[in-house]
Amino acid sequence: MADQHRYGECERGFTLLELLAVIAILGLILVALTGGVRFAGRAWETQERLIARQGDLDAVQSVLRQMIASGHSFQGDSASLSFVGTLPRALNDGGLFDIVLRATEGRLVLDWQPHLNGAALPEEPMESELARNVSSVEFTYYFAKGDELGGWQRESKDKGKPPALVGVAVQNDKGRAWPPLVVATMIERAAK
Fold first, then answer.
1. Would you list the domain boundaries of the chain?
2. Among 62, 112, 124, 162, which is least packed, fewest CB within 10 Å?
3. Quick one: average pLDDT of 139-167?
4. What is the pTM of this model?
5. Per residue, what are the HEC states of the chain?
């Protein structure tokens, strides 16, 4: 009778075929999990790159907004804007500067030199890159309805009649446009 009991216990285990099926299923589950983790890692890295680019874009727009808002003596066309104003803190040595914003060779560039009113020889302009991979920049100028110009214009040539608003439209080399930037100039107009 003891022999029969032992023989019954041996029958309770898993067969080799059942073990192989379980191992194969576990292998498939591990492959799927590994692929999912790899996909999640790539998605995470892509999102971090996009966030970093957006942070750079926000910083450039903030610098442009600050410089244009504090500027005066605006002159420009759709391709470039020049004015007198202060520089961002990172570049600022204090005082007023002649500032030019323009696109060149796929970059948005800031040129500046000290603003001189006298007969002193002007210094060679300094250049700073604000953004790369720029295919086009368009500046527009809004004049109040009371002006003979009135409305949005593609040029601002008369320093005596500053625009009320300056629009900056930037497009990158992949055809994607930056969020529109419209800045109110802080110019007090003389009473007529």
1. 49-184
2. 124
3. 81
4. 0.65
5. CHHHHHHHHHCCCCCHHHHHHHHHHHHHHHHHHHHHHHHHHHHHHHHHHHHHHHHHHHHHHHHHHHHHHCCEEEEECCCEEEEEECCCCCCCCCCCEEEEEEEECCEEEEEEEECCCCCCCCCCCEEEEEEECEEEEEEEEEECCCCCCCEEECCECCCCCCCCEEEEEEEECCCCECCCEEEECCCCCCCC
